[in-house]
From TrEMBL:
Annotated keywords: ATP-binding, Coiled coil, Kinase, Membrane, Nucleotide-binding, Phosphoprotein, Transferase, Transmembrane, Transmembrane helix, Two-component regulatory system
An example Gene Ontology molecular-function term: ATP binding
Enzymatic reactions: ATP + protein L-histidine = ADP + protein N-phospho-L-histidine
Classification via InterPro entries: HATPase_C_sf, HATPase_dom, Sensor_HK_TwoCompSys, Sig_transdc_His_kin_sub3_dim/P
Organism, as annotated: Streptomyces thermolilacinus SPC6
Protein name from the UniProt record: histidine kinase
Length: 388
């Protein structure tokens, strides 16, 4: 915390002053001035460690104050300069081992000299070792942080590579399976249209199947390219769906649809247009599966404040058993074999149950919302609000 450093500085000064009180009776004017300067320089040891060491060495030479030079030596050793640390350690050893006045060295016995040298080694190498240890700890912490960041980056890259591999696999599967079957549908519907000459309704139906199959192949090719490119820009470039395609979508839906599309003043983004198209497309698909005889109304319009685009697809309840009007009549389904233990409604289309879930996810990704609910009259409504 921020208060810890000032508290440590005050504590260090108090301890140094307490060291002086133990020898106050031996003070003269010069040693007192030297020791007072050393105590005053202690708070500068972090910003100016070498200057603080030089300012506190005379206090150690007097023999009255040893703590400030040792603390300054610790700060010097904690720095990044090994050369400066070595010079400071030698200087501190020399000052500690030499008596004051220096001339007393000539009168010292061998035992006293060895004691002074031992004290100099301990007082110089001790703070130096602690400072080097602190510096090593800081470097190890920084290195550990770098290794952790590198590891996280490698894990992220590996996850991205795994996603790219999975996208490529999905692209291969989509191309090899869906494209094969849709291609056969397009070719056979084209041949059926060319062969049919008597019934115009059958020719139109075959042409509609062929056109939708070709469009599905084009969109599939775009999506396969997006999966292989793994690029958001490629996804936006591949989008062929927008507000201008809603009219064709409703006309080809084989349903009784009333559409009201009002474009906003500012052109919406490609993502918003694509989401609107997919919401209408999936909603019409659900009506076609669950209420094929119902009437549908599609309304796309900007909100009152102009900051959002509202999409509403509402269908009435199906009118009951019977055939739909001629212009929306579907071909009679050919009975398919039903697996043992399962039942399928007559004419039902397969569905995975993920349509509305996917639409809600699309809206939420854009920061909007989507709600789907049953109406009191038995119909169904899908309503979405997408920010512009």
């Amino acid at each position: 915390m921020r208060w810890r450093r000032p508290a440590a500085e005050v504590l260090l000064v108090v301890v140094a002053a307490a060291e002086l009180l133990t020898v106050e009776e031996d003070f003269t004017a010069l040693p007192l001035a030297v020791c007072a300067a050393a105590v005053l320089f202690l708070p500068l040891r972090r910003r100016l460690p070498t200057v603080t060491l030089c300012a506190t060495l005379p206090a150690m030479l007097t023999g009255f104050l040893w703590l400030p030079p040792m603390v300054a030596m610790f700060e010097v050793a904690s720095g990044r300069s090994r050369h400066r640390t070595a010079v400071a350690c030698v200087l501190l050893f020399a000052v500690t081992a030499c008596p004051w006045p220096v001339g007393d060295l000539l009168t010292m016995t061998r035992q006293e000299v060895l004691t002074s040298v031992e004290a100099g080694v301990l007082m110089s190498t001790g703070p130096t070792a602690l400072g080097l240890l602190a510096r090593t700890r800081v470097e190890l912490r920084a290195r550990l942080a770098d290794l952790t960041a590198t590891r996280e980056r490698e894990q992220r890259l590996e996850a991205e590579r795994a996603v790219i591999r999975e996208r490529a696999r999905l692209a291969r599967e989509m191309h090899d399976t869906v494209a094969h079957h849709v291609g056969i549908i397009a070719v056979q519907s084209g041949a059926l249209r060319a062969a049919e000459t008597a019934d115009a309704w059958k020719r139109d139906t075959a042409e509609s199947i062929r056109r939708h199959s070709v469009q599905a192949l084009e969109e599939l090719r775009d999506m396969v390219g997006v999966l292989r490119a793994s690029d958001a820009g490629a996804a936006r470039a591949a989008v062929r769906t927008g507000l201008d395609g809603l009219r064709d979508l409703t006309d080809d839906s084989l349903l009784d649809v009333t559409a009201e599309v009002t474009a906003p003043k500012a052109a919406p983004s490609a993502e918003v247009e694509c989401t609107v198209f997919r919401i209408v497309q999936e909603s019409l698909n659900n009506v076609r599966k669950h209420a094929p005889n119902a009437r549908v109304s599609v309304r796309v319009a900007p909100a009152a404040d102009g900051r959002a685009l509202t999409v509403e697809v509402r269908n009435t309840p199906p009118p009951g058993p019977g055939r739909p009007p001629e212009h929306v009549r579907l071909p009679e389904p050919r009975p398919e074999p039903v697996p043992e233990g399962e039942t399928v409604a007559e004419g039902a289309l397969p569905g995975g149950g993920y349509g509305l879930v996917g639409l809600r996810e699309r809206a939420e990704l854009l920061g909007g919302s989507l709600a789907a609910e049953r109406c009191p009259d038995g119909g169904f409504v899908v309503r979405a609000v997408l920010p512009l």
